[in-house]
Amino acid sequence: MARSGTPDQPITIRNTADSAAAISGPTAGVVIDGQHDIVLQDLWVMKLADLPAVDLRDAAGITVQGGVFSMSDASTAPLARLAGVTRSTLTGFRASGAAVVDGLILDDATTDVEVRSVIVSSPPVYGRHENSVGIRVDGPGNRLVNNVVNGFSGAGVALGPEAADTVVVNTQMTAGGGFGIHNHGALRTAITNNTVQSRCRDGIRVDGASTGTSIQNNMLMTNGSNRNSYCDKTDGWGAEIALFDDSGKRVTVDYNNTMHLYDPAFYSWNGLGMMLVAFRDTSGQAKHDKEVSDYRDREDSANSAAPGYLTTDRIGAGRADNPAVPNTGAGPVTYADRGAFETLGSPTAALDIALDLGASSVTLDASASTPGFVPLTTYVFDFGDGTVVTQAKPVASHTYARAGNYEVTIKVSGSDQRVATVVRPVGVLPRTGTVGLLALQNLRYTSAAQAGASAQADQPALGADGQFDLADAGNGQVALLSRATNRYLSVSATVLAVSTAVGPNETFVLLRNTDGTISLKATVNSRYVGVSSTVELTAIAPGITNAEKFYRVNVADANRTLKATVNGRYVSAESAGAKPLIANRATAGPWETFDLADLGSGQVGVFAHANNRFVCADNVGLNPLIANRTSAGAWEKFTVTRNADGTTSLKATINSRYVSADNVGTNPLIANRATIGLWEKFTLAG
């Protein structure tokens, strides 16, 4: 850069929002030398070898915002280097390198620089470069806020002797071959609310003068162990917090949590490992520190008056008070958590959807939502068509003016304004009927008993689990909504009752076969739905066999009884269907219950519950009716006549004769009458 901007009008170099362009090559970094008021935004700098991705020298008012910086595998150059830089901000970028000596360097002439929300990474292996450092600060008055440091063989963060008044807060630091945070003699530094984990040497180490340093609210876990493969076994054991050179008499250590799984030394005083009680006696510090075995034992116990403390955690979440945990912290906010992350106690949103295709309506039920730290008080329902309902109750309904797929949303919150959201698609289609599907393969009804489970042809009768709304999906296609689960049947490895919306996996072409059965051809793969050997429905057949055929039974025509008008008796498939039908029962049970299967062209098949067989006008109608057929052929087809007096008559298709309760109902039913009289009338009920 050869020019400078002004504080009001900085020079800005940025990647456009839709660009994936990158500066790439061994010398592809950005150098600013002697200029001021410049913004670098969302730059991608890749495959560097000889220079840092960002090299700032004797500069001021520089903002590096966002971006990705990546070094070549062999490069030892730092990821970013600041020399003599003031009044500048580095924020939101990711930088990584396999062999870098240092990640980010702020030299001893750099001051008033904030590094915020930066991710710096390298492999953790100790032998790659001795004492490589994630972020090295040698100048005074700088701030490291909300950063992530992964790897590096030396310290994750190293503060040199001249780095006075530096703040290191809300750092998330993971595995590395060296120290976590190392203050090597810097005065008045604030090391606050950091989470340091799995470093091979001390988690936080302070040595040299370091007068006025504060180490508070930190969470330190499993540091100082050389058991990990990336550790140098010759280094020996470290501690979670280590004070050297009598620094313990000049620093403040308090309100920290230590969680140490291996060696028993949680603390170190001039290299002597000790537990918390001994460390307190020796150093006079750590009055409110805790040795813990549970990571969660850090809630509502931090010191909000600690130097460097922020009102938000590493990801920007505000402090939250868990009412189930006593507030044992200090300062103006006694419920802040230790470490880089606040336990938020956020609510969770749950949504159950009930579709009523007949009314073109949907009911959203958020009753299963759970509160966070405070009770839920507000439910915001967005029905996806511009209708938004805000209320204190968890259930709301809405009727749609137009059919279609919509995206519905529920937001739940309490008095702390923490919000949980669930977004789900729904399909509100015109209902053309409610049916059961009786499989020809095994004469069992298809059921969908549980949302997300496979539909199965396993029910002897049409019950609640077997009822499906047949919906018009447009373009000659249909969808089937399980009324028991409020889910559409969807084609996957099997046919599942899983979806609340309708797409290619949920639509079918309904075909009427010449024998009166129907078949369903899946839109998504042009395969037919059939009954597998395990009675699960699948859509894998390229053609139609008996396994891909179903009888359509309208729900209104299922579980019906026939009472003969002539004697007031129910028609029975006597002896579990072994004998002809006869109207001789005063009450109705399974032998007296029938389904009328829709065979098309105004014809029905009479399906007896007594033995799961179709009723037949046997011997071309010359013999009495008997329930003994496994499919509905010509002898098993009837037409239904609705009489003016509200009764019903059945005409056998095979001989065009009406079914009669012959001889005042004392004889078996037979299709032998050309006209309808009293003996040919029945009351259809159920």
From TrEMBL:
A cellular component annotation (GO) from this entry: actin cytoskeleton
Q: Which Pfam families match?
A: Beta_helix, PKD_4
Q: Where is the composition biased (Basic and acidic residues)?
A: 289-301
Give me any GO biological process, just one.
Answer: carbohydrate metabolic process
Limits of the PKD domain: 375-435
Task: Provide a Gene Ontology MF annotation, just one.
Answer: actin filament binding
- Region Disordered, as annotated, extends over 289-331
Q: What PANTHER family does this protein map onto?
A: FASCIN (PTHR10551), FASCIN-2 (PTHR10551:SF9)
The name this protein carries in UniProt is: PKD domain-containing protein
